[in-house]
Structure formats: C-alpha cells, structure tokens
Amino acid sequence: MVQLIDRAIDKAGPVFIAVALLLIDMSALAYYLVVFPYSHDWSEASFFGKLSIIFIFIFTVYMVYCIHFHYYMAIKTHPGTMAEIYAKESDHLSGATISEHEVQVHEVLLDMEEYSDCPKTCHLPKPERAHHCSVCNQCIMRFDHHCPWIHNCVGHFNHRYFVLFMTYLVISAAYFVAFGWRPFVVSLDLLTSEWPYYFPRPLMAFSMILAICMGLAIGALCLWHYYLIFTAQTTVEFYNNYYDKKQCKRQGEVFINMYDFGFRENARRFFNVCEQFPWYTILYPIPIPPRGNGRVFEKCEEFYLLPKSRQREQIEMQREVQELEDDKDI
Question: Which range is the signal sequence, renumbered to this chain (predicted)?
C-alpha cells in the first residue's frame, strides 16, 4: 500500500507543479490587473508619487521573478545522490593521468571511511546525513523530505532554493493581502458596485482567499524550515535528535548536535554566505551552490570536546538510524 502511494505521488508530480504555477500566476495577474491600478492612480499622482509607483512596480516584478526563479531551481536542481557523485568521479578518473588517478583513488578511499557499509537499498556507501527516499528510491544527500509540489526531494543541493522560494512566496502573499483587501471587498459587492477591470470578480475574490491560505500554510512551513536552519537540522534529523535527546536525558548526559555552530553561523553555512559569496547575494536570483560536497560535514567544537567514546557512540547512533530506515524501505 505504501509503495502504491509513493508511486502515485511520483507520477502526480508534474500535475502538482502545473497547479502551483497556475495558482501563483493567477494571483500575480489579479495583482497587476486589479490591485495595482486600484491602489496606485498614475494620472493623479505627483512627481514623487509617480516615482513611488515605478519603484513599487519594479519591486513587485522582482518578487514575482524571484518566486519563479527559486521554484524552477528547486525543481530542476538535483538534491544529490551517491550514484551521481560516483558517476562523475568515475568519468573524471577515466580521463586522468596515472599519478592523478592514484591520488584521487586515495581521496575516495579516505572519504569512504566516513561512510557506513553499503546499505541494502542503493548498494552504495551512504554518507552522513543522507537518507533514503522511498518515492525517488534513492539515497539523498542531507535529505529533508520529498515534496510533491516540486516533484523532487529537498536535499543538499536544492534546499536553499526551496527555502527562498517559500520566503518570497510568503512575503508576496502578505503584500497582496495588505494592498488587495479593498478591491477584494469591492469584488464581493455584486449588486451595487461597478467593476472596471478585465479580471473577473470571482477570480479576484478567490485570489485573495488563496493568498491568505497560502500565506498561513506556507508561512508555517517556512518558519519551521528557518527553525531547522538555525538549529542545523533537517526534518528527519529533528525527529532523530528528539529521540536521542530523550535517551541522553535518561542516561544523565547532555545531547550535542555535532553540526550546530550557533544560529548565526548555521544560517551563514546554509545559505553559503561565507567566504565565497557575500551576504547580499542572498537577494540575488542567481544559482548559488551550497557549502560543501554533501558527503562529509564539519563538526562543531562542542562535539570534539566530548570523550572519544561519546563521539564514536553518536556517529554509530546516526548510522544505526540510517540502517533502520533502509530496512523500513525494503
């Protein structure tokens, strides 16, 4: 039964994307054909008023573009799998010289020491923070969840785009509600008020209700993901860490999240606004890769202050959780 549901989710992915684009673009049309002309009268505006209208128009176009850009990147960017990484490494090794080949094989073997044994599902060494997706039937790097609305997993290489897509969408929904409630009220008055717009009244009313619902639902999801970002967790890791915290509490020990560098540094690492990319690039709708290769992650100082036995125990616990999930998906 679970496999049938997973297959149905996978097959319905393009339909979810089409519906999402239809609803987003319908709301954008409602704004430009109704809300914008209702709220900003160009003919009666002063010089500075016209400058303000131009600025608002550019700002809203930027927001709409950012929504579509990050949504497209979340869909098209592969979250990262070991099969993909090993294929690239194999192609690279085949074209290398003998000395380069020996060096790179050595590096691959060193990397593999960080992995657990080959799992039963993907038959490839699984790196830390990777988990198996039953819908995609692949082990995804830094796996968060499978999202049918992007017909893709949210993982290491596209998690940033997914979060920024939600961020711009929630801000835009709030902006639409703030400026669109008056034309929304007018659209409900079918008997007395005139409607001098090409956009139909029922669709304007529906767009407002949609903006409120999307803003609340996606806003809650967006806040949840920012909480995970600030605490250096994924959705899967949150539930695993919750269990580990209870186990540590029973044993009189303090749980340490080995990937937690503090909320500010966690955010910088997630959005990769560190050494290579300055902070303001987070506002640019351009492709920016995540920090690291997705196979091995830096550990915080508090983790290395733990006794060696506790460090090994925590890493082994992570591997056991991965193996349990593999057994569950078979």
Answer: none
Residue pair 240/228 in contact by the 8 Å Cβ criterion: no
Residue 221's contacts (CB-CB under 8 Å, 6 or more residues apart) are 166
Domain boundaries, the chain: 2-79+156-214, 82-143, 235-329
Q: Residue 88 contacts by C-beta under 8 Å, 6 or more apart in sequence?
A: none
CA distances to 8, 93, 233, 283, 330 from 121, rounded to whole Å, are: 20, 26, 24, 39, 7
* Beta-carbon-side half-sphere exposure of residue 77 (alpha carbons within 13 Å): 22
Distance CA 134, CA 10 (A): 10
pTM listed for this prediction:
0.86
Task: Say how far apart CA 130 and CA 115 lie, in whole Å.
Answer: 10
Provide the pairing of β-strand 145-147 with 152-154. antiparallel
Local structure of residue 121 (DSSP, 8 states): T
How do the pLDDT tens digits run along the chain, 330 residues long?
667 877 888 888 899 999 999 999 999 999 999 999 998 888 787 888 889 999 999 999 999 999 999 999 999 999 988 766 655 555 544 444 444 444 443 444 344 444 444 555 566 667 888 888 888 888 899 999 999 999 999 999 999 999 999 999 999 999 999 999 999 998 888 766 788 888 999 999 999 999 999 999 999 999 999 999 999 999 999 988 888 888 788 888 888 899 999 999 999 999 999 778 999 999 999 999 999 888 888 988 888 888 888 878 778 877 777 666 655 655
C-beta of residue 208 within 8 angstroms of C-beta of residue 178: no
Residue 210 tokens read as 């949609």
- Residue 255: which of 299, 298, 303 has the closest Cα? 303
Query: Hey, what amino acid is at 227?
Result: Y
